[in-house]
Write a structure and sequence with these properties.
Elements (H helix, E strand, L loop, with lengths): L11 E11 L4 E11 L2 E7 L10 E4 L4 E4 L1 E6 L11 H5 L2 H17 L2 E6 L3 H11 L7 E4 L4 E2 L12 H4 L13 E2 L3 H13 L5 E4 L18 H13 L4 E5 L2 H10 L3 E4 L5 H9 L3 E3 L2 H14 L3 H23 L3 E2 L19 H8 L5 H8 L1 H6 L17 E4 L16 E6 L2 E5 L5
Parallel strand pairs: 1-4, 1-5, 6-7, 7-8, 9-10, 11-12, 12-13, 13-14, 14-15
Antiparallel strand pairs: 1-2, 2-3, 5-16, 16-17, 17-18
């Protein structure tokens, strides 16, 4: 990946002659001009509408399409390379996971993802600082750190001694440890501990799941009182709660408790859809992870019970997310990828955009809204990124071809000609095309 020198605060860069996709208004700005000052877009519009300063650096985009930087609002930066959630974390040194995760961050940025929402990984929480200070290259990281799970919950790795599961007592550091908590007081303390560790938002396991052996997606986890306590602690710190929630009743419980982001939503029903709309909740379907479990599961070591549950939920999940789309629920892109050599590989995260179009029947512009506008909302950054507007971060990518005509373009990194995050260019091969 090519890296340009950083400009000083007073330096200006002009991007001109681009086809700027205004995702909010569903239109192209032809012969578009973007003025970048420091980290922000200081002006944007078509040529003639924007005053271009003299004697500044200018890049000719040669008529290529300009999009906001893409966002994966639910993924895990773990450094995993297989689907064996039991053996690999126990047998691999923690430092190896960290080294792999650094390479995964490079791949994510090279694929056009300028922001990621990590929904459970201590590695993401701790690499965030390294990205911000420029020590390593990667997308902007918004991370939850340790997820909160009840005992016998989706985040309780029951095959380990219970003191090994909780991050506060473990004898073995692994990428995806949880905080186990039961009762309102324990939930408050766990939420405060997650915040103490630097969480940007709180992740909770509000239902059972597919890749947890002894529960099911339909199982409600945490009482409404426990969830309300967690939400209250997040709100006290000006943060929000993002819930793993798959069963219909668990989804409703979470939303009624004040959760702002619902992940997976396998069995979301009409009541859940209406409640999500009323409370302005964003749903992140994470279709990609199940797609990969079914395609690669046995080969990469997914446990048989995980493959069977994935087969069981697949069609109904798609049907219910179609329902949510038709009813006007905000849907954001998130892959639930955790890293891999073939399946769950970071850098392939635009698969979620393709699946929203092909499986859910989304209009391509709506799928791109899910990957930008609504995903920015899902990570709490809608005022700073997710669209190309004056005074927002200069997070953008330049694409060879029109992704509204062919969403596969976004899955091929050679089609991404330029990548800019916060006004800094990390890739620019426009001159070669």
């Amino acid at each position: 990946m090519n890296t340009s020198k950083e400009r000083t605060r007073d330096e200006i860069l002009v991007l001109e002659n681009g086809r700027i996709l205004d995702v909010e208004n569903e239109r192209f700005i032809e012969r578009g001009v973007i003025i970048v000052r420091d980290k922000l877009i200081s002006d944007i519009g078509s040529r003639g509408e924007v005053e271009i300063p003299k004697n500044v650096e200018t890049i000719d985009l040669k008529g290529n399409v300009v999009l906001p930087g893409l966002i994966d609002a639910h993924m895990h930066l773990t450094g995993m390379r297989t689907g064996d959630l039991v053996k690999e974390p126990l047998l691999t040194p923690y430092e190896v996971f960290v080294a792999r995760a650094i390479k995964d961050l490079e791949a994510l940025l090279d694929a056009g993802f300028t922001t990621i929402g990590d929904a459970g990984s201590v590695i993401a929480l701790n690499l965030k600082q390294a990205v911000e200070e420029g020590t390593i290259i990667g997308p902007r990281i918004i991370a939850s750190g340790y997820p909160l799970s009840q005992t016998f919950g989706h985040g309780d790795e029951h095959y380990l001694p219970v003191e090994w599961v909780d991050a506060r007592t473990t004898k073995k550091l692994t990428p995806m440890m949880s905080l186990l908590c039961d009762g309102v007081d324990e939930c408050r303390k766990a939420a405060r501990y997650a915040l103490r560790q630097g969480a940007d938002f709180i992740k909770v396991m509000a239902t059972g799941g597919v890749l947890s052996q002894r529960d099911r997606p339909e199982y409600i986890q945490f009482s409404k009182e426990e969830l309300r306590a967690i939400v209250e602690e997040a709100e006290h710190a000006n943060r929000f709660v993002h819930a793993h929630a798959q069963g219909s009743k668990g989804i409703i419980h979470a939303i009624e408790a004040g959760v702002k982001v619902i992940a997976h939503a396998i069995y979301i029903d009409d009541e859940g859809c209406e409640l999500a709309k009323q409370r302005n909740v964003v749903v992140v379907p994470t279709l990609s992870v199940v797609e990969h479990i079914l395609r690669y599961g046995e080969k990469i070591g997914i446990p048989p019970w995980g493959i069977e549950k994935s087969k069981e939920v697949y069609e109904e999940h798609i049907s219910n997310i179609r329902r949510a789309y038709r009813r006007g629920v905000k849907l954001a892109t998130g892959t639930d990828f955790m890293g891999g050599r073939e399946a769950f590989r970071h850098g392939d995260n635009a698969l979620e955009i393709k699946l929203l179009i092909e499986k859910i029947g989304m209009r391509p512009i709506d799928a791109l809204k899910s990957a930008t506008l609504y995903a920015a909302e899902a990570v709490g950054l809608s005022s700073l990124t997710g669209s190309l507007r004056k005074d927002k971060y200069a997070d953008l990518i330049v694409i060879k071809g029109n992704p509204l005509d062919d969403p596969d373009l976004l899955l091929k990194r050679e089609n991404i000609l330029m990548i800019m995050k916060e006004g800094r260019i990390y890739k620019n091969i426009i001159e070669k095309h």
